[in-house]
Each structure stands twice: as C-alpha cells, then as structure tokens.
Amino acid sequence: MKPAVTEYALDGVIERLLLADWKVAALLLDAAALEAGFDRVTIARQVRHVGASGTADLVVRYWLGPACTAMLLVENKIDAGFTPDQPARYAISRDAQRSSVPAIATLLLAPDVYLAGSRLASGFDAAAPYERLLPLASGPDRELIATAIERAESPYEPVPVPEVMDFFIGYAELARSAAPDLVLKRNPNSAGARPEASRTIYFDARRSGFAGYDFLLKEGRPASLRVSHQCWDSGAPNPSVKAMLDGWAQHLPIVSPVLAPSLRASGIYLRAAGRSLALVLDTKRLDNMRPVAGQETVILDALSKLQRLRDAWNGLEEPLRRAAALVTHKEAP
C-alpha cells in the first residue's frame, strides 16, 4: 500500500518552508529562471486562476519593500494525474497577470520520479523536485516530504471495483461484436483491475484504421494520435469520442479555419485537450458503475461516431497538409 500523505499537507509544508527560510524562496525563484530582488515573500493557497477555471495550489509573491517583484503560480503534485487542460489554465492565468508584476512564471513541484514520467510537466514554465527541498526541511516537515517521495516511487495499485470491471468487460464484448474494425487497447493495470475513476476507453488508432500522417510533426517527429471514448468528462460540457493529435493544441488557431470547411455539417468540432488538438463528437453519458445491459444504445451510438470520426480524419489529408505548412511557416526563424 502507498504511504499516506496528501498534497494538501505538502502545500502546508511548502508554505512553512518559504516563510521560514529565504533559501527555499530563492531556490524556487531560481528554478523558474526568474531574477528578482526580495526581502520577504507572501503565500496564498488555492487561488482562483485569472481568465481560466480552476485554482493554483500556491501563489508565491516576492516583495522588495512595498513593491511586488515576482510571482510564482505553483502546482503541487505527489502522484495524481492532471485534470483536463490543467497546465494550459496555469499559462492563461500567468499571461493574464503579466502586466501586474515584473516577473511571473508557472512552476510544477513534484517528486523527481513524477517529473521524469509526466508528459504534461513540460506545460509549465519550470519544475522543481521535492528532493531539492528535502535538505532544507527538518522534523515533521522533512518526514512528510520523504513520505511523499516514497509514495511517488511506489507502483500504482488501483483499487479494483468489480462493477467497473464488469462494465469494461461488457463494453469490450459489445464493441467486438458491433464494431470489430475498432480495436480496443488492453488494460494496463495488473489483473485487469479498474478503479472507480476509470471512465475512458482507449482504442488503437492504427489498428482501428486511423491514417497516420507523417507530415504532422511534434518536435521534428511525427505526432502521435490517440483515440478514446470518454464516458464522462468532468472537464468538458459533454462526454465524447475524440481523436487527439499530441502537441498540436497550440496550433488550434491556425488549424481550425483550414479544417472548418471540411468538417462543416459533420457535427465534428475542434478543441484543445491538454496539449493535444482534438477532433470531437459529443456522446451521451455512461455510468461505469452499472452493467452495460441497459446502456447498449449509448455505446453503439458512440462506436458509430468513432467510425465517423475515423472516416473524417482519413479524408483530411489535403487540408491537414495545408495546415501543417502554415504551422511550419509560422515557426520558421
């Protein structure tokens, strides 16, 4: 079992360290690559983002006399995943406050093993591992940081919920029968365990017939495409099926007008999904705590929409080439 410690408790540790030791304040400022003089810091916890939904775990303000010289918007993670678009919401809040402070950055604090394994850590301006805080802490606070590091290093052990496992088994059986051309990815959890929070079914994009376009690049390499059916999405108005192009959310303003004529009247729309650009069709909500029996109509509708999404994606090669050329032109020095 994972060691017991909460991110809320670590928020308190970080706040106490910042107020007690200027070295901690300087460490975080340096991690964020900000230069600012200061003689004190103030910390606010669970602060609403400016211009975006959600909150920053901590907002650290650096002061020199009466003037605020720098601000850090800090997200603190032990081992939890990111909520939808969480790094992007931090960036929006940062940009909305640039004019109010000389220097501002978003900062992710987490154990080193978390930072090494998270795909979304790069969505923050900077990151700092708990391990750099550990030598500066003492007593119970040091023990809490050490416990958090141990927790992050412990393997993920989902608590299996039989009802959820039965739902996923029933979904897979129905999909194999009704839409054998759509190939589900295997469950990565040992013994097929599914916790209550499992609400997304992932499909193998290539084996399900989604075309691969090697001209759609992320950092010089073909961007990966992920395909999913989200039975319930707390970060969006509706559940949906999505085809998500990794790393392309930032290009949404360029891509959208190019693809819009081809998607018109299809019901498919574009939006950011974390760092990905998503082609989306809305679906109806499914209850993963109930058997598939009685929810077949909703699942069959979603599978049909995935097939529509695939056909649309496979017909977008020419407009996607034009969009990729525009992105390349914009990024050229």
Report what the structure shows.
By secondary structure, the protein is of the alpha+beta class. The chain has two domains: 147 residues, no CATH class; 170 residues. Helices cover 37% and strands 22% of the residues. A five-stranded mixed sheet has the order 1-2-3-4-5, sandwiched between helices. It has a five-stranded antiparallel sheet with strand order 6-9-10-12-11. Helix 1 packs across helix 6 and helix 8 packs antiparallel against helix 10. It is globular, with a radius of gyration of 22 Å. The protein starts with 6 loop residues before the first helix and ends with a helix.
Helix content: 25-40%
Question: Biggest sheet, open or closed, and with what strands and sense?
Answer: 5 strands, mixed
Number of domains: 2
Structural class: alpha+beta
Strand order of the largest sheet: 1-2-3-4-5
- Return the string of H and E elements: HHEEEHEHEHHHEEEEEHEEHH
Low-confidence stretches: none
Termini, distance in Å? 51 Å
Quick tags:
5-stranded antiparallel beta sheet, globular, alpha+beta, 333 residues, 5-stranded mixed beta sheet
SSE topology:
Layout: H1 7-20, H2 22-31, E1 40-48, E2 55-64, E3 67-76, H3 86-96, E4 104-110, H4 112-117, E5 126-129, H5 130-133, H6 139-153, H7 162-178, E6 200-203, E7 217-218, E8 221-222, E9 225-230, E10 240-245, H8 252-263, E11 269-273, E12 276-282, H9 296-314, H10 317-331
Helix pairs in contact: 1-2, 1-6, 7-9, 8-10
